[in-house]
Amino acid sequence: MVRTVRAAFPHLNRWLNELPDPRCQPMCRYTAAHLWWQILGTFLSRKGSRNGFDEQRQSGQAPWNMGALCGQSSEDPRFAGQPTVTCSDNAARHAGRVDPEAVAQIPVWMFHDLLERRCFEGARLFDRWYLMVVDGSVKEKCRQGFEAGGKASTNGARYR
Known about the structure:
- By secondary structure, the chain is an all-alpha fold.
- It has one domain (2-116).
- The chain has helices spanning 2-8, 12-18, 32-45, 50-56, 62-70, 88-96, 100-116, and strands spanning 124-125, 129-130.
- It has a two-stranded antiparallel sheet with strand order 1-2.
- A hairpin with a 3-residue loop joins strand 1 (124-125) and strand 2.
- It is elongated.
């Protein structure tokens, strides 16, 4: 995964580290990229909850793999030779203090970087326009069967 991420998005860790970071840096054990990769890892692991990810975050090669992904290896003096993975509460607290508009720029930069590197040249229509498909669908299982006012639906309407 590290090689794939580095090949597709070589600047991703720099972008994550450059997001506004309200923490007092000398007191921080984890880089901003580490915290954002912890959040991404929680979703990618599909454990069903933050606790599910937290239960196994320190097992096996997970700390070394996280270090490879975020660029914070065991040689970082903050780890004293033994890398660790931050807990989801720490990552969530950090994410809650960062402006969502700044975070939303990351996918824009990723897409722009792919365009600049001409990764979509084979997807042009008539050798002129790029063909892109963007999936904006959202499944909200928790809202199925409820109307906007929070009352149970009587007509069986579902939100999508």
